[in-house]
Amino acid sequence: MRHVTKSRRSVLQSTAGAMGGVSLALAGCLGGSSEEGAVEPIELIVTTEDYDPIRYEFGNLIAENWRELGFEVEVTPLAWNTIVSRTFDEQNFDTFTLNWAGRAARLDPDVFCYSLHHSSQTDQGGNNMVNYESSEYDEYAEAQRKAYDENERQEAVMQCQELFAEDQPRTPIANQTQAMPYLEARFDDIVNMMGEGLMSFWTAVDSMPANGVEQISLGYPSDVNNLNPVDGTASHDTQTMRLIYDKLVRIDQEGMATNWLAEDVTVVDDTTIRATIRDGHQWHDGEDLTVEDVKFSFDYLNEYSSLLSSFMGPLESTEIIDERTVEFTLSDSFAPFIPVGLGQVFIIPQHIWENIPEDLDGVSEPVGWENPEPVGSGPFEFVSWNRDEQMVLQANQNHFHTPNIPELIKIPGADMQSLVRLLEDESLDMIGWVPGPDTVNRLDSEIDHVTISSIDSHNWYHINYQLERPPFDDVAVRHALADAIPKQDIVDIVMDGMGTVTHTFMAAVNDFWHNPDVREFGNDLGRAQITLEEAGYTLENGRLYYPEE
Amino acid sequence: MGLQEFVVRRIAQLVFTFWVFVTMLFVLFRAAPGDPTSMYVTQGMSAEARAATIRRLGLDQPLHQQYIDYIGQLLTGEFGTSFRYNEPVWDILVVKFWNTVILMGSALLLAYVLGITFGALLGWYRGSSFERGGIIVALMARSSPEFWTGIIILSIFSFGLGLFPSGGMRAVGTQPDSFMARYLAWDFVYHMILPMLAGAIYYMATPMLLMRNTMLDVLKADFIEIKKAEGLSERRILFRHAARNSVLPLVTIIAIVSGTAIGGSLIIETVFNWPGMGREMVESISYNDYPVAMGTFFLMGSVVIIMNFFADLAYGYLDPRVQYD
């Protein structure tokens, strides 16, 4: 590393300077980019500073180091919409920063192993927009999908990570530590969960309010879009609906599937899975929840919900075996079916949904229904909702897992700062989102009644390379670029220590699936230079040239 | 040309203005990058699900078809259905529109009452240190960013003195059950005082300085001298005669300011966590929720267009020197 010690201030100053430096550097070489044998200038797309200061700042840090290697780098901050259309949709990029947030469903390795890196996912709009194609990798990614045996599956997931690290189609940088503030006096015990922090399902159902506290308010920087389980596009909507609707299985705090509405789930054979539901459970309107409702939910959501049907994988049919058992038949063995399929699909009441959309005028499909007063069977019942003001949920006293919080009030904020102010003047009990590092430090040290609850997340910040474009089609270049990324500085300075350096897509906190032995890159500009030299790249006047043919 | 013809022509202009306005809205939003599904990509929305959504929302139709549908909808008084909320745009906006109108309306009312009064006094006491001080204060209020003023107000009255809540529209956990209960409750007014103050401070300078200028002109007029000669009290001349004749130009300004205030409420709404239309506007743009975004702009623009129309008519009515041509 060039700098042994850096302060946040000096880094931010150089970041600001870097923006000016780019235009100067580029101005000095107009027409030079097509120079014989010179490596093309690289565009690094970052989010705007408002949208995510972390990505914006580390993008600029990384560009600085890449320039040291002789690359011409231009950092382009873009609005999120634009980033999506340029990267996911058009695949028209050199490199860009991205963060896959840690959601409960992603504790299962399938999303990161398969949908991000399998060669079948490279179509426009797919998650493998870097066009990583490796038949060897594909083999393991498919194997982990097929293996119901956890140890066998773990082995395949480890292999995926090893190959991924070796090939570096993306460079993982860090997992974030989620530090969320709450009022200590309002709780006897507060539950936290990796990847979701205080927004987790278990926080809402298992946290213990202090004696005499009847209402707990939870702030979030935006409001829910809608409470239609057929939709569920926005994760905030899903996080809210899972309190109102049950699932057969829930992901527990360790990240493993645990029975919920199902009291037993059995893998009969590779393509047959049986679930037995609890006896005597009721919908919020007092109707009995039956095995017909379960079958109906899977049939209905598979047909009408593009989001939930994608979690069901190769589900072919759902059949009722007896009055408490359903059998799922798959066209192919699919290990994630239990944690991801059964763990994501909401069980919805047939007596309400079977008439939708026929009963509604103006709504063409169930996904477009407003579902104004959701009736579920979950631990919380819907009471009322004034958009952008508050949503009130109350504990379902008839539930087999009755929450300790009698009334949960969700407060949407205009932005993070307005929520923090509400928390400071004690109008709010907890916030389900991470304020910036500065705010966390201030709350922690200066505001006595506010406590910070911290937990590591399995999200991962990373850099994507477009493998179809030179120079990124050369693995040596990717290794060099990865080595030049100052991962430790990013964690220490940009994230203010609230994070962990990572070298793989399965975070260390997700212990069972994490491979600690992958090849590591980063924090080593010297090695990056050597890698390029050994691959035959040359430097002339600070500019990098391709190897002689 | 008579008054009737003037009114008819202004109405025709109004219709044309609206058509240009809604067409511009359509073009602007369709030219923006991304689509309504962009925001959900990293939340796990698959490419197939995205394509299905685009189809369902009719966004795969050719642009001219979408434009025809959109104009057709507007003509029947429909704003369409929100992509995100699955609710008719009108239902979403009507509540937020009132929230914003009541907040900004109160802020403007306060700003104009204070602004006109102080402006008249500044004009009257021309050349005094009171006038100089007043101008400096007005310019400072005008050039301080609203968010800064808002945060200063918050830190003094909410965090410093603990007199007022730091944000929101009502206490956590209370639920109004009617329009009247929403806006006539003390809890609501109590929550509105600080944001109203922040808005009033910002919007006060314009009427104040404008009033001062017109006052200076009016005070030079002969009739004021006559009134003085008649021996009327200073106060009476100031408020009865001078100020009254100076208010005229402010009528036009009110029209323009009302429109910008509805949109400009965004910053105050953000600082004070007020559930209004300004916030919805920005959010719906970032989510490419075209129906809602266009609805917010349409409402805001309509306020400006209609207010201007009435200002024109009112001006023609108030000032007999205005020619109808």
Explain the layout of strands and helices.
The complex is a heterodimer of chains A (549) and B (325).
Chain A: H1 8-27, E1 42-47, H2 53-68, E2 73-78, H3 80-89, E3 95-100, H4 110-115, H5 135-146, H6 150-167, E4 170-183, E5 187-189, H7 201-206, E6 208-209, E7 215-220, H8 235-244, E8 249-251, E9 257-259, E10 262-269, E11 272-277, H9 291-304, H10 306-311, E12 315-322, E13 325-330, H11 338-344, H12 350-353, E14 380-386, E15 390-395, E16 407-412, H13 416-424, E17 430-431, H14 437-446, E18 450-456, E19 460-465, H15 475-483, H16 487-494, E20 499-501, H17 525-534, E21 538-540, E22 543-545
Chain B: H1 3-31, H2 47-56, H3 63-75, H4 89-124, H5 129-143, H6 146-160, H7 179-183, H8 186-220, H9 222-229, H10 234-246, H11 248-271, H12 277-286, H13 290-318
Helix pairs in contact in B: 1-13, 4-5, 4-8, 4-10, 4-11, 4-13, 5-8, 6-8, 6-11, 8-10, 8-11, 11-12, 11-13, 12-13
Subcellular location (chain B): Cell membrane
Domain ABC transmembrane type-1 (chain B): 97-311
Organism (chain B): Halalkalicoccus jeotgali (strain DSM 18796 / CECT 7217 / JCM 14584 / KCTC 4019 / B3)
Structure notes:
- The complex is a heterodimer of chains A (549) and B (325).
- Chain A has 549 residues and is of the alpha+beta class.
- Helix content of chain A is 32%, strand content 22%.
- Chain A has helices spanning 8-27, 53-68, 80-89, 110-115, 135-146, 150-167, 201-206, 235-244, 291-304, 306-311, 338-344, 350-353, 416-424, 437-446, 475-483, 487-494, 525-534; strands at 42-47, 73-78, 95-100, 170-183, 187-189, 208-209, 215-220, 249-251, 257-259, 262-269, 272-277, 315-322, 325-330, 380-386, 390-395, 407-412, 430-431, 450-456, 460-465, 499-501, 538-540, 543-545.
- In chain A, the strands form 6 sheets. In chain A, strands 1, 2, 3, 4, 18, 19 and 20 form a 7-stranded mixed β-sheet that branches.
- In chain A, helix 1 (8-27) crosses helix 2 (53-68), helix 5 (135-146) runs antiparallel to helix 6 (150-167) and helix 15 packs antiparallel against helix 17 (525-534).
- Chain A is globular, with a radius of gyration of 25 Å.
- Mean pLDDT of chain A is 90; it is low at 1-33.
- With 325 residues, chain B is an all-alpha fold.
- Helix content of chain B is 74%, strand content 0%.
- Chain B is globular, with a radius of gyration of 24 Å.
